[in-house]
Design a protein that fits this description.
By secondary structure, the chain is α/β, with parallel strands linked by helices. The chain is built from nine helices and 13 strands. Helix 6 links the parallel strand 5 and strand 6. The structure holds N,N-dimethyl-L-histidine.
Length: about 325
Amino acid sequence: MENITYHNYQPTTLSFRDAVINGLSRDSKSIPPKFFYDERGSKLFAKICEQPEYYPPLVERKLLERLAGKIASLTGTGRVLIEPGAGNAAKVRLLLDALQPAAFVPMDISFDYLKSTARELAGEYPWLPVHAACVDYTHSLPIPQQAPEGPRLLFFPGSSLGNFDPGEAGDFLSLVRNTVGDNGMLLIGVDTKKSELLLNAAYNDAAGMTAAFNLNLLHRMRKELDMDCNPENFEHRAFYNSEAGRIEMHLVSKHKQELRVNGHSFNLEAGESLHTENSYKYAPEEFISLASNSGFKEVSHWMDSDGLFAIYLFEAF
Ligand code: AVI
């Protein structure tokens, strides 16, 4: 299809094996959350998004549906729209008709997934040039040369920024600021601080999807790294750490056990945990100040009537 170009920026990331060995070697053992997303993990994440306790996807979706026209009136039409981690691009579809971008640049780490998303979009929106970029957006945000000149808008929904520690979040926002340039804008969805009861429920859904998603890391270690780690020997733990302003997810060892990988051996005590994810929550004033340290000025922000989730529109300064 002539409406699409593909670009493989060959993301080189730390291998799963190296990340597991590094993570198990630490005093406080941890594994970065990006390793959740193998095929089974991505399907489990999609299931989490259907759970009634996990409010962000539905609330954000309703906000985007309601606000598409308003957002377009503030950004104007004809921008080059960029979405890191676009996945199946479900959320951007709510904006395309209103925003009428000059081109869309979806970015994803999985080239196969990206190609199928790009093909679907080009079929649904024949007027929209799509320049698909395979990239690890945590390292760089390369814009294909074929993308037209003109003002840019970067869309980053789903509170994905919450999975960065605040320092990394600031660095990422600075990278975004460089990428969009002086006339650039940022539209970003970020989860808010709220009652611990609601937050804890969102990461401990009754159907056990979040637990299965977390425990899937151990399935992955067993399958891909040939490790003798039985998921039954661990339990899912997720809780809000109010001091740090984040949900923490852990895999807690039920007994004393030894994990071996590539000739290395690691001992886990009963009750010792592997820290698998942080999900930071931001009050609007905190987030606006974080973005301002990276060169973004607030244009507007919106929340649902219960204040569960926020969407911010920023412009570069
Ligand atoms: C992808 N990310 C924003 C989700 C979150 O809420 O931090 C991942 C997730 N982890 C457990 N449930 C959802």
